[in-house]
Amino acid sequence: MQPLPTPSALHLRGACSALRAGGVVAYPTEAVWGLGCDPLNRRAVERLLLLKQRDWRQGLILIGADFEQLEPFVQMPSRTAQKRAFSTWPGPATWVFPASDATPMWISGARANVAIRVTAHPVARALCETFGGALVSTSANRSGRPPAISATQIRLAFRRSVDAIVPGPLGGRSAPTTIRDVISGMILRR
Q1: Which domains, from first to last, does the chain contain?
Q2: Which residues, including other chains, have CB under 8 Å from residue 105's CB and lie 6 or more apart?
């Protein structure tokens, strides 16, 4: 299998400009298209939730190019639990960690934890690297609808509500990433 291409610098700069201005961007991930925004910008997150018609209490997933981008949002569990997550990263594995005091409630929702992933997808990874931090990453769909699997579906579903679309192929997975609890190792979503 050939490696996936990375997006152009022009697309990345445009998307990051939109993110810094409080925008919502769409980008390919491991299995489906994602919507993302700056997790520290409450208005951006509220706008993303409104686009998705999603209840804020469910919480959101954060992605990063490396663990250092995600570290401020989590409390470190035991060494065993930490090794459990780190052995799968970068890659298509999402882990639920205890949330740090710095994690905004609009990210953790009505929970005391936060779901994070160190992504290996070259587009999502390049977007985090160019942005310089973690991003919200949620499937590009309205709640209850199937996730978008193409940029065309993004345009049809969200019209002009998305501020930038970073082009690129999906990562080849047939389903969104598995979500596990980092402390117990239990699967929360297949």
Answers
A1: 9-189 (3.90.870.10)
A2: none
pTM, entire model: 0.94
Whether the ω angle into residue 77 lies within 30 degrees of 0, i.e. cis, is: no
Q: What is d(CA 132, CA 175) in angstroms, rounded to the nearest whole number?
A: 27
- Which pLDDT value is given to residue 175? 84
| 8 A C-beta contact, residue 32 and residue 149 | yes
What are the backbone angles phi and psi of residue 126, rounded to the nearest 5°? -65, -35
Show the low-confidence residues of the chain (pLDDT under 70): 1-6
Strand ranges of the sheet holding 135-136, from the earlier edge strand across to the other edge: 135-136, 61-64, 113-118, 93-98, 178-181, 187-189
Place of tokens 């445009």: 14
Tokens of 119: 């992504």
**Helix locations, 30-144, DSSP H:** 42-52, 67-70, 79-86, 105-108, 122-131
Q: What is the pLDDT of residues 143-182, one digit of tens each?
A: 899 999 999 999 999 988 999 999 999 998 988 889 999 9
Q: With contact defined as beta carbons under 8 Å apart, do 77 and 83 qualify?
A: no
pLDDT at residue number 3: 67
Residue pair 12/166 in contact by the 8 Å Cβ criterion: yes
Task: Record the tokens describing residue 85, joined without a space.
Answer: 């997550």
Q: CA quadruple 146, 150, 151, 156: dihedral positive or negative?
A: negative
Identity of the amino acid at 123: V
**pLDDT for the residue 177:** 87
